[in-house]
C-alpha cells in the first residue's frame, strides 16, 4: 500500500509535466469531464493549448474532452474528478474524431463544404446577377483547387469609385466558423438588397468582397472528416509524396511579409510553421493580389476561438499610428457581438505587430483597418445549436464594420493637373503616420484615397515622382461623413522643356 502511494505521488507530480511536454505519452482514452469551472482550466491536469491539443481537446460550456493514458485517468480519479470514458482506441486520430466531430465521428452536416458554398454562390448569381459575382483569385499551393472571392455591389459588373470592404474565413483549416459566417454574410446581403434599408445602403455605397475559405485544401481535410485537427494548408513539407500526414503544411496566417521573420516558427512540424519565405504559399498570394487591386478600407478575418477581437497593434510597446481610431472601432466591433453565454460581449485586445499575420500586413502595407475575430470559445468545431448562434451573433459585427464605410474620414481624387488622369500618389499624414508603416497611396483605378479619421484638423502631404509636392495645412474632417478633398498635382518640367 505504501509503495502504491509513492507511485501515485510520483505520477501526481509528473502529470502536469507530461501534459506540457513536447514528447507526449501515447494516450488511448478519451474522457469526458462535466461541470468543470473555468478556474480549473490551465492548471495542473487540465492544461489547454490551442496549438497543441494532445491532452485537453476542447472545453465548451463546462465540459472537457480529454485524451489520457490509463495512469493519467487514475490520477484524475485520485484527485476527485468524475469522468466517463467516451472511447478507447490505440489510434489517436479516432479519438480526436470522436472528441471533435461527435458520436458519428464525421463532420456535422450543418457545416458547409467548400463545394456546397460555391454551389450556393452560383445559385445566387443566377438569381441576382446584377449584385453578386464570383471571382477566381488563385489556386491552392498543393492541390490546385480554385480560391474564389465573391463580390457584392449594387452594380457588380462595373468597377465603381466606392470604398471597399472585405470579409474572409478559414485561413486555418479547422476554424470552420469563418466559412459559415462568410456564407451567411453573402446570403444576407444578396437576398435582402432592396428589402432591408441598411443592406440596400451598404451595397449602394460600398463594394463588398467575401472570401469564404482562404485555405481551401486544409478546409477540405477537415470538412471531409479526414482529420479534424488540421490547421495549415496541405503543402507536402516533408517531401514524402503522401498528403495529409499530420502536422504537415504551412500556417498561411504566418506567411504574410510584414515582420514575417519574427512570427510563427521555422520548424515544418510546428502548427505555426511560417513557410520557407514570405508569400511562399499561393493562398497568401491570392489575398495579396486581391488587396493590391482593391485597397480595402476595412476588413474582418474570421478565426476560432476565444471570443476576442485582435487589431493592430502592440509592437513591443509601440502602438499603431491610428491607434486611437483602431481601438475605438475594435471596441465597438467587440461590443456588437454577443458571446456564447449571451450575457456578455466579445472583448478587444491588441495583437502583436511581429507575427506575419493578415491584420498587421493589411494595415502596415495598405492602411486597411483589419480585425481578427476569434469566434466562439473552447473549440473550433461546435455543436449544431452553438454553430447557428455563433454565426448569427457575428453578423452583428459584420454590420458594424459595414456601417463604417460611410466615414468619417478624408477622401478624394489625386489627378494630373493637365491631363486629369488618375494618379497612384502617396497621401501622407505626417502628424499621424510613423516609419512602422508603408506610406499610404491612392488606389490605381480612380486615383482615389480613403482615410478613416476622427473629426478634427489634419496636415496633409501629397507627392508623386515627376510632380510637385502638395502640402495642405488644417484640412478639417467633419463629424459623421466623408470630407472630400480632390487634389490635382502639377507635373514637373521635363529636362529640355
Structure description:
This protein has 497 residues and is of the alpha/beta class. The chain folds into 3 domains: 2-101, Alpha-Beta Plaits (2-Layer Sandwich), CATH 3.30.70; 163-402, Zn peptidases (Aminopeptidase, 3-Layer(aba) Sandwich), CATH 3.40.630; 409-489, Carboxypeptidase-like, regulatory domain (Immunoglobulin-like). It is built from 11 helices and 20 strands. The protein has helices spanning 2-20, 70-78, 92-101, 114-127, 177-191, 197-205, 216-223, 282-294, 323-335, 358-366, 384-403; strands at 29-33, 56-60, 63-68, 84-88, 132-139, 146-152, 164-169, 207-211, 298-303, 308-315, 318-319, 347-352, 369-374, 409-416, 426-428, 448-452, 456-463, 470-477, 482-484, 487-489. Strands 5, 6, 7, 8, 9, 10, 11, 12 and 13 form a 9-stranded mixed beta sheet that branches. Strand 10 (308-315) and strand 11 (318-319) form a beta hairpin. The longest helix has 20 residues, at 384-403.
Topology diagram in text:
Blueprint lengths: L1 H19 L8 E5 L22 E5 L2 E6 L1 H9 L5 E5 L3 H10 L12 H14 L4 E8 L6 E7 L11 E6 L7 H15 L5 H9 L1 E5 L4 H8 L58 H13 L3 E6 L4 E8 L2 E2 L3 H13 L11 E6 L5 H9 L2 E6 L9 H20 L5 E8 L9 E3 L19 E5 L3 E8 L6 E8 L4 E3 L2 E3 L8
Parallel strand pairs: 7-8, 7-9, 9-13, 10-12, 14-19, 14-20
Antiparallel strand pairs: 1-3, 1-4, 2-3, 5-6, 6-8, 10-11, 10-13, 14-16, 15-17, 17-18
- What's the CATH topology name of the largest domain? Aminopeptidase
> Number of domains in the coordinates?
3
Oligomer: single chain
Cα(first) to Cα(last) distance is: 102 Å
Count the E strands: 20
Q: CATH homologous superfamily of the largest domain?
A: Zn peptidases
| Main β-sheet description | 9 strands, mixed
Query: Could you list the spans in which at least 5 consecutive residues all have pLDDT below 50?
Result: 1-22
- Round the Cα radius of gyration to an integer and report it: 25 Å
Q: Averaging pLDDT over every residue, what do you get?
A: 92
Proportion of strand residues = 15-25%
Q: What CATH architecture of the largest domain would you give?
A: 3-Layer(aba) Sandwich
Query: What's the level 1 CATH class of the largest domain?
Result: Alpha Beta
Structural class: alpha/beta
Amino acid at each position: 500500500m505504501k509503495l502504491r502511494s509513492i507511485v501515485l505521488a510520483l505520477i501526481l507530480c509528473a502529470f502536469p509535466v507530461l501534459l506540457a511536454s513536447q514528447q507526449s505519452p501515447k494516450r488511448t482514452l478519451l474522457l469526458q469531464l462535466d461541470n468543470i469551472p473555468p478556474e480549473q482550466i490551465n492548471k495542473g491536469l487540465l492544461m489547454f493549448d490551442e496549438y497543441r491539443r494532445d491532452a485537453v481537446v476542447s472545453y465548451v460550456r463546462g465540459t472537457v474532452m480529454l485524451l489520457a493514458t490509463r495512469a493519467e485517468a487514475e490520477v484524475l480519479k485520485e484527485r476527485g474528478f468524475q469522468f466517463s470514458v467516451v472511447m478507447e482506441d490505440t489510434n489517436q486520430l479516432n479519438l480526436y474524431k470522436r472528441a471533435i466531430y461527435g458520436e458519428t465521428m464525421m463532420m456535422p452536416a450543418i457545416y458547409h463544404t467548400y463545394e456546397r458554398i460555391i454551389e450556393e454562390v452560383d445559385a445566387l448569381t443566377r438569381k441576382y446577377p446584377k449584385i453578386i459575382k464570383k471571382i477566381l483569385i488563385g489556386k491552392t499551393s498543393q492541390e490546385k483547387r480554385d480560391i474564389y472571392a465573391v463580390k457584392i455591389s449594387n452594380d457588380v459588373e462595373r468597377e465603381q469609385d466606392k470604398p471597399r470592404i472585405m470579409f474572409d474565413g478559414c485561413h486555418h483549416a479547422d476554424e470552420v466558423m469563418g466559412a459559415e459566417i462568410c456564407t451567411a454574410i453573402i446570403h444576407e446581403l444578396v437576398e435582402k438588397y432592396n428589402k432591408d434599408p441598411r443592406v440596400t445602403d451598404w451595397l449602394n455605397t460600398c463594394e463588398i468582397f467575401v472570401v469564404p475559405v482562404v485555405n481551401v485544401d486544409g478546409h477540405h481535410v477537415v470538412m471531409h472528416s479526414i482529420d479534424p485537427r488540421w490547421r495549415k494548408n496541405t503543402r507536402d513539407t516533408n517531401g514524402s509524396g503522401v498528403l495529409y500526414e499530420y502536422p504537415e503544411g504551412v500556417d498561411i496566417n504566418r506567411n504574410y511579409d510584414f515582420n514575417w521573420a519574427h512570427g510563427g516558427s521555422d520548424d515544418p512540424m510546428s502548427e505555426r510553421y511560417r513557410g520557407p519565405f514570405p508569400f511562399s504559399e499561393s493562398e497568401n498570394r491570392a489575398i495579396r493580389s486581391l488587396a493590391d487591386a482593391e485597397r480595402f478600407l476595412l476588413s474582418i478575418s474570421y478565426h476560432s476561438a476565444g471570443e476576442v477581437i485582435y487589431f493592430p497593434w502592440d509592437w513591443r510597446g509601440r502602438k499603431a499610428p491610428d491607434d486611437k481610431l483602431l481601438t475605438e472601432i475594435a471596441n465597438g466591433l467587440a461590443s456588437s457581438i454577443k458571446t456564447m453565454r449571451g450575457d456578455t460581449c466579445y472583448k478587444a485586445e491588441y495583437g502583436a505587430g511581429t507575427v506575419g499575420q493578415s491584420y498587421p500586413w493589411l494595415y502596415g502595407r495598405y492602411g486597411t483597418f483589419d480585425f481578427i475575430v476569434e469566434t466562439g470559445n473552447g473549440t473550433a468545431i461546435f455543436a449544431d445549436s452553438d454553430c447557428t448562434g455563433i454565426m448569427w451573433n457575428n453578423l452583428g459585427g459584420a454590420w458594424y464594420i459595414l456601417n463604417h464605410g460611410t466615414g468619417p474620414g478624408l477622401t478624394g481624387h489625386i489627378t494630373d493637373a493637365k491631363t486629369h488622369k488618375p494618379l497612384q500618389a502617396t497621401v501622407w499624414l505626417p502628424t499621424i503616420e510613423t516609419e512602422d508603416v508603408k506610406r499610404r497611396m491612392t488606389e490605381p483605378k480612380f486615383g482615389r484615397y480613403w482615410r478613416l479619421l476622427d473629426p478634427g484638423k489634419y496636415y496633409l502631404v501629397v507627392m508623386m515622382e515627376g510632380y510637385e509636392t502638395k502640402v495642405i495645412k488644417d484640412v478639417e474632417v467633419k463629424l459623421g461623413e466623408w470630407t472630400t478633398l480632390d487634389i490635382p498635382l502639377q507635373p514637373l518640367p521635363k529636362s529640355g522643356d
